[in-house]
TrEMBL record:
Complex formation: Part of the 30S ribosomal subunit.
Its biological purpose: One of the primary rRNA binding proteins, it binds specifically to the 5'-end of 16S ribosomal RNA.
Protein name, as recorded: Small ribosomal subunit protein uS17
One Pfam family recorded for the sequence: Ribosomal_S17
Gene3D superfamilies referenced in this protein's UniProt entry, alphabetically: Nucleic acid-binding proteins
GO biological process: translation
Name of the gene encoding the protein in the UniProt record: rpsQ
Sequence similarity: Belongs to the universal ribosomal protein uS17 family.
SUPFAM superfamilies in alphabetical order: Nucleic acid-binding proteins
Amino acid sequence: MPKRILQGVVVSDKNDKTVVVRVERRFAHPLMQKTVRRSKKYKAHDAENQFKVGDMVSIEECAPVSKDKRWTVVSNQS
């Protein structure tokens, strides 16, 4: 099964080798049919500490790195 890839914005880089990425999804409300935005935060592994707050990044599923890190940063979209 292919690994999922999500795109989001780095909202925190305070942890060592970890960034917190906010991923936003948009969908139509089932009843009102208005576009709704929902976001979720994921902790992702950043081995070189190269990504900073505000960077647009892609994250990919991986094997668990720690208790709550199951994603790794794969690239930077400027």
